[in-house]
Amino acid sequence: MKIAIISDVHANLEALTACLKKISELGADKIICLGDLVDYCAEPNECIELIQKNCDVVVMGNHDEAQFEHDMAEGFSNDARISSIHTREVIKPEYTEYFKSLPRVYRYESLLFVHGSPQNPEDYRYILTPEAAELNFREFDESICFIGHSHKPLIFKETKRGVHIVTDEYQEAGHRYIINAGSVGQPRDGDPRLSFGLFDLNSRKYTNYRVEYDTLTASNKIKNEGLPLYLAERIINGV
């Protein structure tokens, strides 16, 4: 079975459409979305509709939760807070109710899926360093935990000598991993191409895919929506 892992779509319809097309070409059997369907980009309703139609499982992200827990947005950056308030004004009421129904974690066989971190998922903590990953390995028993949230694709490997960032894509038996699939809608690692992962449950092989999409159209839509200019600029540069 091939499982596609997507995260942090952030209302970017151009990126999501290109991502789903690539996933179809790869022949994925299941699509799991790790949350943050909205904010930053211009088309939240269209993206939620596509995700509902195509994803088998969706877990809650902090930007999704902020649509019904409005105080959360007060802790966002200024641009993120502005976009969250804008989403509230344009999102369909049924989609806000949909967000309320989403789980914080999902387990499937030897795999765990969560938006931010297995340690206190409701706090949406970042895992960006081996030290942070080491703390989180203590919080789950599964062989692999898939995460999003930071918008940066990373693989952390737990060994007897400690936790290390690795680039190898084949998951060795006897080791555990925390894998960040990166962001579909707003990559922040200097590469503007959308990012997602594909995991083969039989071979235990994980592959991160980067796919080009129409960033210019997505950027112009952000501008036309009246959202902060920086949000339009950053998807062009992948930061």
List the topology elements:
Elements lengths: L1 E5 L6 H14 L3 E4 L10 H11 L2 E2 L3 H4 L12 H13 L2 H8 L4 E4 L2 E4 L15 H8 L6 E4 L6 E6 L2 E4 L10 E5 L13 E7 L4 E7 L3 H10 L4 H9 L2
Parallel strand pairs: 1-2, 2-3, 5-6, 6-9
Antiparallel strand pairs: 1-10, 4-5, 7-8, 7-9, 10-11
| Outline type | globular
CATH class: Alpha Beta
Give, in order, the helices and strands: EHEHEHHHEEHEEEEEEHH
Coarse structural class:
alpha/beta
The N- to C-terminal Cα distance equals 33 Å
CATH fold field value: Purple Acid Phosphatase, chain A, domain 2
Give the fraction of residues assigned to helices: 25-40%
Rg over alpha carbons: 17 Å
Tally of structural domains: 1
Strand content: 15-25%
Detail the poorly predicted runs: none
The CATH superfamily name is: Metallo-dependent phosphatases
Overall pLDDT, averaged?
A: 95
CATH architecture group name: 4-Layer Sandwich
Q: What strand line-up does the widest sheet have?
A: 4-5-6-9-7-8
The largest sheet is: 6 strands, mixed
* Structure summary, number of beta strands: 11
| Total of helices | 8
Q: Key features?
A:
five-stranded mixed beta sheet, alpha/beta, globular, six-stranded mixed beta sheet, 239 residues, Purple Acid Phosphatase, chain A, domain 2
